[in-house]
Amino acid sequence: MSKLWKRNAVVGAVLVLVIAAIVLNGRYAAEAEPTVEPPETGGKILGQATEVVSPEPGEAEEASAVPEVGVASDYFAAARLSRQQARDSALSLLQQAGESEEMDAQVASEVAQGIEALASYTMTEAQIENMITAKGYEDCVVFLSDNSVSVVVSTSQDGLQTEDIARITDIVKQETGLPATAIKILEVS
């Protein structure tokens, strides 16, 4: 009996640590992103640079067809990779815990719920990202946790305006059911 209790305690502790790691990863990624002052102050990020290339005459059509690759696209790729690695790690731990032969029904149910929650977060994040980019924003990445959402959006030089924030907040509220106070929107230009 003592051995079974210890095993269940270990599986429960692993489950709690995995979920905590996912939540902290989402918060860290959102906090690590530099913030920009509101558009009305005209603030800029310290060290922010914009490359301006003037095309040669006759090359205007070619220059517009080449996508810009810069800091923003690198951020989104790194954020998605980091999020996916954290989810893969958590899923692996949950699957290992679920494969234990001496697990009772309650712990097996908790493991299944953890796997289901990860899958739900992944699908909801992808839906929100697709809806935001469908509204005309270049790129975005969403970090979802139990009671909050962080959205990082690629913006033009003008930054996010009030109507942009309202549009993004509305999308997130519809998909998650969370209140506006639980939604954090950051911009990357």
Q: Which helices and strands, and how do they pair?
A:
Layout: H1 2-32, H2 60-65, H3 71-98, H4 105-134, E1 140-144, E2 149-154, H5 162-176, E3 183-188
Parallel strand pairs: 2-3
Antiparallel strand pairs: 1-2
Helix pairs in contact: 1-3, 1-4, 3-4, 4-5
Q: Which strands sit side by side, in order, in the main sheet?
A: 1-2-3
Question: In what range is the share of β-strand residues?
Answer: 5-15%
Overall morphology:
elongated
Average predicted local confidence, pLDDT: 74
- Low-confidence stretches at least 5 residues in length (pLDDT < 50)? 33-55, 58-69
Q: N-to-C terminal Cα separation, in Å?
A: 58 Å
Number of strands: 3
Helix content: 55-70%
Largest sheet: 3 strands, mixed
What is the string of SSEs from the N terminus onward?
A: HHHHEEHE
Radius of gyration: 21 Å
Number of helices: 5
Judged by helices, strands and strand pairing, the structural class is mainly alpha
Q: What is the quaternary state of this protein?
A: single chain
